[in-house]
Design goal:
The chain contains 10 helices and 7 strands. By secondary structure, it is an alpha/beta fold. It has a 7-stranded mixed sheet, sandwiched between helices. Helix 4 runs antiparallel to helix 5 and helix 4 packs parallel to helix 6. The longest helix is centred in the C-terminal third of the chain and has 20 residues.
Length: 275
């Protein structure tokens, strides 16, 4: 299982050792994982050490704000590198974390040399919801969403059957019923029903934190690596609302949100970066 294999600690994880250049720190994605880094790290300058900033483990109480998550990660970064200049990046939700990490480091009067957001969409925060999630967590609903992604075509009968089972089964029974579907087998092989529930809860906490976050203007350039398909819909992925044009360096990468992490697109984005 690609998710279970990551050991979560309150310390940065060395992904690739390097030479004399400052390390590059990557925040975890919205699933709370660092699994995108093994695809990315081999294409980064061999003189740059690569570290991943992991989420809390599945069995821990998850944080509810981007600010809190970033504060925890700043501590990890400074344990490895006490002083700047710092280089920080992240894919998807990890880019949002990277942005807030950079804000906090600058607020501590330290230099951030590079800030990279890889296909990260910015959605301004929703006021008045700081103490509660945007959406109530429903483990069966979250699981059903994953299963539906894998149903054949647009089969209404398959969807109706799934909804009917969801109404009559508890979470553990539903997991047992659908464990052999390709999507659950790929994501959750070897995990217990409780661990699957915790994984879904962590993803939900990250989604809620994403929706609550309101970014402040940052005084450094922001390198936005935007998937071509994302740009067609979101243009600057919302960052033009907070980052001035002369600070927003947008690099368009062929592919979708997922495929930009695969060859040859992953090589293209690194080739256009100047860390």
């Amino acid at each position: 299982n690609q998710f279970a294999s990551t050991v979560m600690r309150d310390e940065a994880v060395l992904i690739k050792s390097g030479g004399s250049k400052p390390p590059l720190f990557f925040a975890h994605c919205g699933a709370g994982e660092l699994i995108y880094l093994p695809k990315l790290a081999p294409h980064i300058d061999k003189e740059i050490p690569i570290y991943g900033l992991p989420s809390l483990s599945l069995d821990q109480q998850q944080m509810g704000t981007v600010e809190g998550m970033a504060t925890r990660m700043v501590s990890m970064i400074r344990s490895v590198q006490p002083n700047g200049p710092y280089c920080i990046a992240g894919w998807s939700f990890g880019g949002l974390l990277a942005y807030e990490i950079a804000m906090q480091i600058i607020g501590a009067d330290q230099e951030v040399r590079f800030l990279g957001l890889i296909d990260t969409q910015y959605r301004p925060g929703i006021s008045g919801l700081t103490d509660k999630p945007v959406i109530n967590f429903d483990d069966k609903e979250q699981l059903m969403h994953l299963i539906q992604m894998n149903l054949d075509g647009d089969s209404q009968s398959a969807n109706d059957a799934l909804k009917s089972k969801m109404a009559t089964m508890n979470f553990t029974t539903l997991v047992q019923e659908y464990r052999d579907t390709p999507i659950l087998r790929k994501l959750f092989s070897g995990l217990t029903a409780m661990q699957i529930q915790q994984w879904l809860a962590r993803s939900h906490a990250n989604k809620s934190a994403n929706m609550l976050y309101t970014a402040k203007r940052i005084p450094i350039p922001v390198h936005l690596f935007a998937a071509q398909e994302s740009q067609k819909t979101y243009l600057a992925l919302g960052w033009d609302a907070i980052v001035p044009n002369d600070q927003l360096c947008t690099i368009t990468i062929p592919g979708t949100h997922q495929s930009i992490m695969n060859s040859p697109n992953v090589e293209i984005q690194i080739g256009r970066a100047h860390v």
